[in-house]
Amino acid sequence: MPHASAPQHDAPRDSPDTTPDAAAGTPPAKARGKAGEKSPRSTARKAVGRPPRISRDDVVRAARRIVDDAGVDALTMRRLATDLGTTPMALYHHVRDKEELLVLLLDDYAAGALRPTGLPDDPVERVLAAAAAIHDALAARPWIAQVLTADDLMAASALWYVEQVVDGLTAAGLSPAQAVHGYRAIWYYTAGEILVRATAARRRAADDRPTYREHVFAGLDPAELPRLSGVAADWAELTAQDTYRDGLRALVTGLVAGR
Amino acid sequence: MPHASAPQHDAPRDSPDTTPDAAAGTPPAKARGKAGEKSPRSTARKAVGRPPRISRDDVVRAARRIVDDAGVDALTMRRLATDLGTTPMALYHHVRDKEELLVLLLDDYAAGALRPTGLPDDPVERVLAAAAAIHDALAARPWIAQVLTADDLMAASALWYVEQVVDGLTAAGLSPAQAVHGYRAIWYYTAGEILVRATAARRRAADDRPTYREHVFAGLDPAELPRLSGVAADWAELTAQDTYRDGLRALVTGLVAGR
DNA sequence: ACCTGAACACCGTTCAAGT
DNA sequence: ACCTGAACACCGTTCAAGT
């Protein structure tokens, strides 16, 4: 199901948008000049002019290929154009800029993530399952981390997961406002885990300056920092363990207990 | 106290390192060629050659100025060189590359953060206070967020905070391993909050595509996503509220309860 | 040892023009 | 309407040379 339900936000002029101001009223500042001045003789919605060679979907698909194959750093407008057999500037007719492309990519990916079948009935367990599902889907692709900071996600196609979390928290006794705040807390924790872990993995892969933390920990003063000195030897092993679900459970438990 | 205790990791050749392999044994891959081949006649540690015009501290200080004044995006090696009255390449004699500079910057900033005086005696409250202190220190500077992903922080000078958290969790009954995992969970939550919030703020400041989320929420199908439809009108207001401490308390409560 | 100058190999994006 | 070509205004970093 490739992003069938993802809304085409900021689609260039061809989206039959229901809200009038999204298409004509107050377009984003950057696009305003272009949209208003560039096509002075487009009097009607007729399909006039050169037929398109590539579509927005083509762009997103090609971008996803690059990112999956070679990482998000390899995604440049120039390479993307080359892969599509066009020029860099042709892309700008389909996406506003690179950041929009990244958000589109994230949406597209979230839409393709599997919705877990048979979520538990118990509210807390349901929250845990939904959060873990979106976490696992995102954590599976390391490039997500770098895109995450470009959007607070939870946009468009990931809303189903958000619904499950908010619903579960409500069923567990939280007020609607508390449930939204609870969802946000879960999202902070989840996004943070993905980002921190992805960075650590990148660091490890580069195998550059690998001994920095060890260096710091080796120089610990047991008198000043006794606890850290005590766990210094095990730190690497302990932090390498995947404890996402444990922390998630603690957070959700605390949210429900503190209602 | 400008990072007096911050270790000079990867300082170029002049650091009298105690661990032999940090200075000579296995230098990072990138630097290996340069370090091994560039100075064939440096037979002793004598201060020979041209006297330095700028120091590593100068570089970090100038970088901090730029970042504080104009944001992290304005920090380029070229501008930094201009501000220091040198050439871009002179900088590379003091820092390995730009990423190291960013990490140095983060360290430097964390070292300058105020340690809260009079931490509470109660273990849970102590954990909350320490975590909130590091959170507030980092959240005060928006550029931190972008640097955070370049390091898992908690390095060097921020260790005091880590000690407080691990100690508090231990005093609350967690095992050393549980305390480390708990600290990690708190760090995920904290880093995630800062990152997500900073991105949202950036988005708002750009006032570009401001209606995307509203657009998505306006198109919600109440039959499919009833909870979200119910809170759609209040979403912006609810998520604008600062609930970092509430979520933190829930997390810590859950960690202690689940021990 | 420390610094400079010039160059390399890129970026994202604008602008004016073509069909 | 859609695409092209050339250019702008940058990047971080390497390399060879100077003092």
Structural class of chain A: mainly alpha
Integer tally of domains of chain A: 2
The beta-strand count of chain A equals 0
User: What is the 3D form of chain A?
Assistant: flat
- In oligomeric terms, what are we looking at? homodimer
Main beta sheet of chain A: strand number and arrangement?
none
Q: Specify Rg of chain A, calculated over alpha carbons.
A: 23 Å
The H/E string of chain A reads HHHHHHHHHHHHHH
Q: Any idea of the CATH topology of the largest domain in chain A?
A: Tetracycline Repressor, domain 2
Helix content of chain A: 55-70%
| Most extensive interface | A-B, 83 and 84 residues
What does this structure look like?
- Two copies of one chain form a homodimer.
- Mean pLDDT of chain A is 78; it is low at 1-45.
- In chain A, helix 3 crosses helix 6 (98-112) and helix 10 runs antiparallel to helix 14.
- The first copy, chain A, has 14 helices and no strands.
- With 259 residues, chain A is mostly helical.
- Chain A binds a DNA duplex (19 and 19 nucleotides) through helix 5.
Can you describe this structure in just a few lines?
Chain A has 259 residues and is mainly α. The first copy, chain A, has helices at 20-25, 29-37, 56-70, 77-84, 88-91, 98-112, 123-139, 143-148, 159-171, 176-206, 212-218, 226-231, 235-240, 244-257.
